[in-house]
Specification:
Helix 3 crosses helix 4, helix 4 packs antiparallel against helix 5 and helix 7 crosses helix 8. With 436 residues, this protein is an alpha+beta fold. It is built from 14 helices and 18 strands. The termini are far apart. Bound molecules: adenosine-5'-triphosphate (ATP) and magnesium ion. Magnesium ion (MG) binds next to loops.
C-alpha cells in the first residue's frame, strides 16, 4: 500500500515506523516546524521513508494539495492521513480534490469547527451543550447571557487547550475574549489562521471528563478504550494527565462508547481512528470535542503500557482491511502524567528527572528533549516540561503517587508544579457534604 502521511505529532512517528516494518510504501510530508525534535531516533524514522517531502507548511491547503498531487502522479496514493490536528483541514481538502481514500473530508471539516460539530449533533438529536459562535466581545457577552454562566470561551478551531477559559461572570468573559483575540503570541504562527475564527461560547459541562478512542471502517466500530482525564483542581481547562481506563462503571463506559458511535455517524466519520472528548454528566455523556485523528500527547504511550497494543498498528489494520485488535479489559490503572509548571520561571541549571529513575511503578519517561526544554530554560505557566507513565491499583492510588513524585520533581526542577485531580477533589467534596 502507498500511504501518504502529512505531518505527525511526536508519538505518531511510530506510525511511520510500523508502516515501514509492515512493508508499506510511505511518503512523508514534513513541515518546516516539526512538533518533534529532529534528532536521534526521530531523524532515523523520518529518513526511513520511501519519499520524504520536507519544508512544507502542512496547514496550508494549497501547499498540501500541490505536494499530494505531485506524489500521487508519481506513485498512486492508496490512503492519505495526518497525525497533526492543524493539518487536518488541508489534508481533507486535498483528499476531496484528488479523490484520495481517508476519513471523509466533510467529517474532518465539520470536526475542526466545534460550532458546526454541535450543529450536526443537534440535527441528529444527540446530547450536546448550549453554544454560540461570537464574532467579538459584545456578541460573546450576549451569548453568555443567553446560555447562562458559567460558560467556556475558546477558539472554535483550537488545539492543545490553548486560549480555553471558564468564565463565571461578565468580567471574566471579557478577559477571556481579550485573551482569545489578543493572546495569539502563545500560538505557533502557522496555526493562527485557524485560531482566529471568532469566540466559541459554550455551556460549562459539569461532570467527569473522558475520551473515547474509537476506530471506524465500513460501518463497523472498534472501541479501543475510554480513558479518564486528570484535570487541575485549580483550573479545570488545564489537563495534567490521562488514565487508562477511566474510573467509570461498566454502564457508563458502554454509554460513552454508544454515544461515540452515534457522534461518528452524525458527522460522517467513516474511516480511521478518532479521539472524542466528552463529559460524563448527570444526563449522560456530552461531547466536548471531536478530534478527527488518533489521540495525542502521552496517551498512545499510556495505551501501549496498559494494553500491550499499539494504536498505530490498529490504524494500519483498519486502513488495510485486516482484522482489528481491540483490548478486552484492563487489570490496573495506567496513567500518563504531565510535569506541568504552575508559575512561569526558569528551570534550575541542574534540573533533571532523576526522581523518576529506578521507580518500579514508573513505566516510561518522556523527557525534556521531547518537550524542547531543559536545564536553565524559561517555562510559562501551564507548560508541560516532561511526562511519565505510572501504574497503580486505581486512579486514586495513581494520583497520590504522582503527587508524591511531583514533590520530588519540584526540588529537582526548581519550579512549582501543578498536581491533583479535579474529579477526585469533586468526589471528596461530595462525600464531605453528605457526611456533614
Ligand atoms: N463546554 C465545555 N464544558 C466544560 N469544559 C470544557 C468545555 N469545552 C472545553 N472544556 C475544557 O477545556 C478543555 C479544552 O477544550 P477543547 O478540548 O475543546 O480544546 P482543544 O484546544 O482542542 O483541546 P486539546 O487539543 O488539548 O484536547 C477541555 O479539555 C475541557 O477540559
Ligand atoms: Mg480537547
Amino acid at each position: 500500500m502507498h500511504i501518504a502521511i502529512v505531518d505527525a505529532n511526536p508519538p505518531a512517528l511510530r506510525a511511520i515506523r510500523l508502516a515501514k516494518e509492515m512493508g508499506h510504501r510511505v511518503s512523508y510530508f514534513q513541515p518546516k516546524l516539526t512538533q518533534y525534535a529532529l534528532t536521534g531516533e526521530n531523524l532515523h524514522i523520518v529518513r526511513s521513508v520511501d519519499r520524504l517531502i520536507e519544508g512544507l507548511d502542512t496547514t496550508d491547503s494549497e501547499v498540501v494539495l500541490a505536494a499530494l498531487t505531485e506524489c500521487h502522479a508519481e506513485t498512486p496514493i492508496d490512503v492519505a492521513v495526518t497525525f497533526q490536528e492543524l493539518a487536518a483541514e488541508a489534508v481533507a481538502h486535498a483528499c476531496r480534490k484528488l479523490g484520495l481514500s481517508g476519513t471523509a473530508p466533510d467529517a474532518v471539516l465539520t470536526a475542526r469547527r466545534k460550532d458546526r460539530c454541535r450543529a450536526e449533533l443537534a440535527a441528529a438529536g444527540l446530547a450536546s451543550a448550549r453554544y454560540a459562535l461570537a464574532a467579538d466581545t459584545r456578541e460573546a457577552l450576549a451569548a453568555a447571557d443567553r446560555i447562562g454562566y458559567p460558560v467556556v470561551l475558546k477558539p472554535p478551531s483550537g488545539s492543545a487547550s490553548l486560549l480555553s477559559h471558564v468564565a463565571y461572570d461578565a468580567a471574566e468573559a471579557v478577559a477571556a475574549c481579550t485573551d482569545i483575540q489578543a493572546g495569539l503570541d502563545a500560538v505557533p504562527p502557522h496555526w493562527r489562521a485557524q485560531f482566529t475564527r471568532g469566540v466559541l461560547v459554550e455551556e460549562l459541562l459539569v461532570g467527569r471528563l473522558v475520551s473515547v478512542e474509537i476506530g471506524a471502517r465500513d460501518g463497523e466500530f472498534f472501541p479501543f478504550c475510554v480513558s479518564g482525564r486528570i484535570r487541575s483542581p485549580e483550573n479545570e481547562v488545564v489537563e495534567l494527565g490521562s488514565c487508562v481506563p477511566a474510573d467509570l462503571s461498566e454502564e457508563e463506559t458502554a454509554a460513552c462508547v454508544t454515544y461515540a458511535q452515534d457522534v461518528c455517524r452524525a458527522i460522517g466519520a467513516d474511516l480511521g481512528i478518532f479521539h472524542l472528548e466528552m463529559m460524563v454528566t448527570d444526563r449522560g455523556p456530552v461531547l466536548v470535542e471531536f478530534n478527527p485523528r488518533i489521540m495525542g500527547g502521552g496517551l498512545p504511550n499510556a495505551y501501549r503500557c496498559a494494553t500491550g497494543q499499539e494504536i498505530y498498528r490498529s490504524w494500519l489494520q483498519i486502513t488495510t482491511g485486516e482484522p482489528v485488535d481491540v483490548p478486552d479489559g484492563f487489570a490496573q490503572c495506567t496513567a500518563v502524567l504531565a510535569v506541568t509548571a504552575r508559575t512561569g520561571g526558569r528551570l534550575s541549571a541542574t534540573a533533571d528527572l532523576s526522581p523518576l529513575a529506578g521507580q518500579a511503578d514508573v513505566l516510561e519517561v518522556l523527557g525534556f528533549d521531547v518537550y524542547r526544554t531543559g536545564p536553565g530554560e524559561q517555562v510559562t505557566p501551564g507548560q508541560a516540561v516532561a511526562r511519565f507513565i505510572l501504574r497503580a491499583a486505581d486512579r486514586r492510588a495513581v494520583v497520590a503517587r504522582a503527587t508524591e513524585l511531583t514533590g520530588h520533581l519540584e526540588t529537582s526542577l526548581g519550579i512549582s508544579l501543578m498536581t491533583g485531580d479535579k474529579d477526585i477533589a469533586d468526589a471528596d467534596a461530595d462525600a464531605d457534604r453528605l457526611a456533614s
